[in-house]
Amino acid sequence: MPRILLLLTDLNIGGTPTVVHELAIRLAPFARTSGGDLQVASLAPRGAVSEQIEAAGIAVNALDAKGPRDARVVARLHRLISRERIDTVFSFLVHANAAAAAVSLFARNVRFIQSIQTTQPEPKWHWKVQKLAQKAAEKIVVPSSSVAKVASEWCEVPQKKIVVIPNALDPEDFAGLERPAEASETPIGFLGRLDPIKRVPDLVEALRDIPRAHLHIFGEGPERAEIERTAVRLGLTRRLTMHGAVPRPQDALSKIRLLILPSAAEGFGLVLIEAMAAGIPVVATDVPGIRDVVQDGVTGLLVPSAQPQRLADAINRLIADPLLRNRLIEAGSADVRERFTWDMVLPKYWELLGV
Length: 355
Description:
The protein is built from 13 helices and 13 strands. The chain is an alpha/beta fold. It folds into two domains: 3-168 and 341-353, 3-Layer(aba) Sandwich (Rossmann fold), CATH 3.40.50; 171-339, 3-Layer(aba) Sandwich (Rossmann fold). The strands form two sheets. Strands 3-2-1-4-5-6-7 form a seven-stranded parallel β-sheet, with helices on both faces. The chain has a six-stranded parallel β-sheet with strand order 10-9-8-11-12-13, with helices on both faces. The N and C termini lie close together (8 Å).
């Protein structure tokens, strides 16, 4: 009778909350069938994804931390685990992993499993904290071999503790999306958190050398002001639309014909498989995490990071070559169905969690 708690830092719109949401709605029925339960908790106050999870009949607990240094959240988490008789805590990202590790000092007969989802080198203190936190975990789940490598090298996680489980989706959720109308400018787009590691200003710079494109950016984050400044500096504001955050990736993907992910590092790049499942070709950077998902020249195009001209060249190539676009679309869709569906991935979580 497993009683599982999925714990993450916040439930704002983003990659990891999306992963947790999708995992929760698929695991909860199996936990209940065996007489157990599954709940979700966030260290931060409620976010937009909270309602999506609750709509599936899954309890969401907001621990209302006032910030990353609010130690009172550890006591609240301990009370939640005790009150709900949780026997397995599965935490995601460094802040949640650290809180779970702290609770492990007091909670008895509870399994602690952690997830590392990034290859981002900065801030270095995150990796120092994770190095300590991982000692409390029975297993460390990572979405790609790139994250497995950094977990081993930067956090000294023993290889026997690492479990690679890729992110997944249901291809039918992305089938039959409407396509934007034909226009003189091809709608291309970025979808994700506007964080410096994503290097979205590189994409704005690349736009200067892509005369047949209009750039749509979906997301919010601390880099928004820099993106807007770059567009003003280059005189590109009329060819750029900032949409803000969207509740579902389909809302963004239905408005573009090409997805670009110019990150300096990723743990996986969930948006890549979402685009491929939707029949949208991708251009991305040849960096850890992304290269685990995209096969260069087969399921997408990869270019070096921090080189806007190379990014522009790849985008122009795809806009001009419909045969290449179609080949990438077909191969990308097939690869998603072969490697990244819930049918392929969910049994690995059943085994890990004993559901």
